[in-house]
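Working notes for the structural subgroup meeting. M.R. asked for a predicted model of this chain before we commit to crystallization trials. I am recording the input and output together here so anyone reviewing the notebook later can reproduce the run.

Input as submitted:
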Amino acid sequence: MERKRMSVIQSAEIRAQLSQRRGTNSGKIISIDQGENIASDQRKIGRRVVFTNGCFDLLHVGHVASLSEAASWGDLLIVGMNTDQSIRRLKGEARPVICQSDRAMMLAALECVDYVVPFDENTPLQLLHAIRPDVLAKGGSYSVDQIVGHEVVESYGGVVAVMGLLEGWSTTDLLQRIQQSTGTPLQITKAA
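Returned structure, recorded in token form:
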């Protein structure tokens, strides 16, 4: 009589597989608590979690290049995205140009982005404490010690990666070019 071999599948592995099979981008937009659980589950099955953050107002080729590079540092990319209220505090009442739900949907539509976590604070520190990424990736002309949260990630042995910067691509530059091409100041109105 032949014995059947049985194997045990961990719940973390099942959740990881289910999360990879989600068919809609809206399933990629999650809360901080969900991000914490997903990151923990992914690490349990040996996957490397990468985190980056930003406003991502007027998503452009510089953002896409940065996000693609960030994703290359690990197995799962979680993107922290400033909420509308957070951006207004940081950049003024005329921003963001694109509302929070639209920005989140555009980020979620990118193949290199696994999850998007909107956050209302001015910095991603709370998110970093919750998610505890293996890699904190940030694009631009920063040094490691200038990246918000570097000390959090380094405290538990994580890596801080400074990514390249695609010159000539920033939301501020893009808004200025639009304004110059029209010859009139941009009138930014808020969506209802």
